[in-house]
Structure prediction request, 718 residues.
Amino acid sequence: MKGEVVPAADPSLDYSIVAQGLMKSFGKLKVLNDLSVRIPRGTTYCLLGPNGSGKTTFIRAVAGLLRLDGGDLSVLGEPVHSVNRIYPRIGYMTQHKALYPDLTLRENMEFYAGLYGIDGRERDERISELLEMVDLADHIDRITGALSGGMYQRLSLACTLIHDPDLLLLDEPTVGVDPILREAFWRFFDGLVERRVTILITTHLMDEAERCKTVGYMRAGRMLAEGSPEELKRLAGLRPILRLWVKDPQASASSLEARGFEVEVVGGVLHVRIEDHGRLKEILERIEPSDLRLVEPSLADAFLRLSEEGLR
Amino acid sequence: MMGPTINSKRVLVVARRVVRQLKRDRRTIGLITFAPVFLMILFGYALSGEMSGINLGVVDLGGQDALRVHLQAVDDFDLLHLGSESDAERLIVEGRLHGAVVIRGEVVRVLLDGSSPQITASVMTEVKNGLLPRKGLQNGEGRGAGGELGAVKGGWLGGDGSVGRVSGPGSLGSDGDVGTSSGPGEYSDVMAVPEIVQRYVRGYDLEMMDSVGPAVLGLVVFFFTFITAAISFLRERTQGSLEKFMVSPLSRPEMVAGYLLGFSLFALLQSATTLLVVVLAFGVPMEGNPLTAFGVIILLGAGGLVLGVFLSNFAKTEFQVVQFIPIVILPQVVLSGVWWPIESIPAFLQPISYALPLTYSSDALRAVMLRGAGVSEILVPDLLFLVGFFVIAFGAATLMLKREVG
Prediction:
């Protein structure tokens, strides 16, 4: 299966995942509602969205674990109904604690290696290499159930990578992983992407989403917006905010609003939206703040803004 | 979806993992190996047919010395000597006595509380034995405790036909003193029992455990393989490992086969220990080849295992798996001829009996262990049914493992 030659003329070659008009309902609830997305090969693609927006459902559909009600989906050039043919090329990390708590780290990894037909010295080398990468080499003979949450996630990632997959489906992979190690994960992911591996990831962590090449923002089973993190921020209409500490916030707010500024008073602090940096001086001339700070918008702000718009 | 081919390497990978997990789970190993042994020992003693601790009142108004001596010699009875029949009746009504024997010269009256057929039978038998000439106790050729059990069986017979009126031995002429029975079941007059000679054509008299033991053996192994497989497969599903390895080259038949192989090691251990207890500790005969009996148990255990895997698809929690016990296990306990012959089950229920694997394993195990049957004698229908049951359950378990779970 591995390294299977796909005809070069196939346009889906450049895409790891091509989804068109996906539909899926659980009872009356539409979990995927005309979802379309194209994920190029060799990229990091982050699915972002509130709980219940359909992120995990989409990942499970890609993994062939879901019977779709409608739409077309192909994975690594294979139609989803026969996606099991390319299972040797997919690494799937679920949100569940799918590893066996009563086995050691080594035994868990040996089990998954065995499923992919990796054995002997190749297996042992691969296991030590991956455990080294996730910084668990010293714990190889520990019982998995005794690991902390973060360690567990790291082992789970190592098991998912055991067969060197071309497509990684990672459902909230860094839950409980500390920031330093998360940084190491991302450096590793970047290395994989350089080798044309595609990584589809769901996360709630904005700083993590910001590291992806593309972020797809889902809501109610639809793709609301898609683009690079910067593009998403712009799409959400976010601008830098000038925070001003003043003696009389209400009076100052009224005075700025009179001149056409968008102002909000949050906890006694003025928040002025800056559409045009040229008008900064104008603001400072009218009021004299005891302190001030210019805050650039984050992806989290974009996320919140898009969620609010989606609610309306 | 996945082709029907089975990669034996992957099956071994799954089996090895199952063994590794079980090896570390001491409690489950204990449950798998020792719980059946414990159960068999329990059944063994409970079914050995000995009745003891019967509280029997004796109202002795003279006469029948042999009976008095005999009753005192019966270990099963705790005797209480009373002054009058009315005292005995009162104590029976109060539940303090199971029965009483009133001896007045040539008349012997037995009072019984009538709530337990076994106690009734036991009391009636011993009273008769005490009145009979010595030779009446000889029951042909008994094996071990057979003589004693033969007496109990005689009691069952006597219990059925004990209503009537005849005087004690050697006193046929004294008709004026013959007691009259005053109420069915409550009072019985003791009659002279004609001499009955029993002969066991196989040369032994089976105790309850002998006939039930082989069948219970199957029941115990089936129950434990079923429940452990169902729960551990359910755990695969709930903890998400099933979903994870669904997205791998492992096919569904490989998955189930791996499970079967891994568990079968423990099923072997379980079957062997249970079989040993039944044969060595309780002296249940092993007339046939032990390996044949062993094979039947393994085949049944494999069927229970795949049935467990199959049914785990219909449970969401371990609590729900436990709810399968009344549905899957109890009908087999009641209907498959473990305790009483299928012929005694109402005709409309018998078709169910013949659809249960335990019916066939019980039949096969009894044939091998008690009659020394070989493989060819139990092939049809027993072994064929068990193989068929296994194949169907395996197929169903495999098909139910849907990849598309949503």
Remarks:
- The radius of gyration of chain B is 28 Å.
- Chain B has a mean pLDDT of 79.
